[in-house]
Automatic annotation (TrEMBL):
Protein's recorded name: Flavodoxin family protein
Domain NADPH-dependent FMN reductase-like intervals: 15-152
Keyword Transmembrane helix: no
GO terms of molecular function: oxidoreductase activity
Organism: Massiliimalia timonensis
Length: 202
């Protein structure tokens, strides 16, 4: 019986939301994302993409209005659309190059604005994103060692946590200064995606 349920569940297409943070439409980060998507089962997912360099997100100014509701900039710069896309997706992919040991400004702006769900006095995170989801980090860096790779998971986890998303895997390719060849092992990410959604405890 349970095997049947699993089989039927796998017929449903997953909705993958790609938060894309590279200015290069066909650069290293794009190639890394494509490698993952090509390794997922054909026709097993829908893809929605937000190009963060094209969104002109307003940086958080700590105006503190979000203590009384959500951010007042949301409908000015279409952060609203991004919120809706997170709500409707099953899986979040955050893809970005490393900039100055961190994230490019448009990605950082998106992350900082998620603070609205953390501080909101009406518990913005649970109200806005009631369902816990899986998220994955894909990054490329010119010369990004293991220590920096580990460090980059900290802001990612904080951002994901604001969206009620669990960082369920990461691939960071750290040597793009030396080679244009992107070599990545997606075994764990693919297994996690195929395993389905997070089982919430009662
Ligand atoms: C402004 C800037 C800052 C960067 N800082 C770093 C860095 O701190 N560490 C690193 O490993 N690579 C750094 N890089 C290199 C990029 O992360 C790397 O070239 C990446 O693969 C570019 O991806 P893309 O082709 O998708 O833009 C930097 C690049 C730029 C333009």
């Amino acid at each position: 019986m349970s095997a049947n349920i699993v089989t039927n569940a796998s017929l449903f297409k997953k909705r993958i939301l790609l938060l894309f943070g590279s200015p290069h439409h066909v650069g290293n980060t794009f190639r890394l994302v494509m490698q993952l998507l090509e390794q997922l089962e054909e026709n097993s997912f829908y893809l929605e993409q937000f190009d963060l360099f094209e969104m002109d997100l307003i940086p958080c100014t700590d105006c503190q209005n979000c203590e009384h509701g959500l951010c007042c900039y949301n409908h000015i710069d279409h952060y609203d659309d991004l919120i809706e896309a997170v709500q409707h997706s099953d899986i979040i992919l955050l893809a970005s190059p490393v900039y100055c040991a961190g994230f490019p400004a448009p990605v950082k702006a998106m992350m900082d604005r998620a603070q609205q769900f953390y501080v909101n006095q009406f518990d913005g995170r649970k109200n806005t994103f009631p369902q816990r989801k899986k998220g994955f980090l894909l990054m490329t860096g010119g010369n990004c060692g293991e220590r920096l790779q580990e460090y980059l998971t900290i802001p990612t986890k904080m951002f994901f946590d604001c969206l009620n998303v669990e960082l369920s895997g990461k691939v960071i390719v750290g040597n793009t200064d030396k080679t244009q060849k992107i070599e990545a092992d997606f075994t764990d990410i693919i297994a996690s995606i195929n395993a389905g959604p997070i089982e919430e405890e009662e």
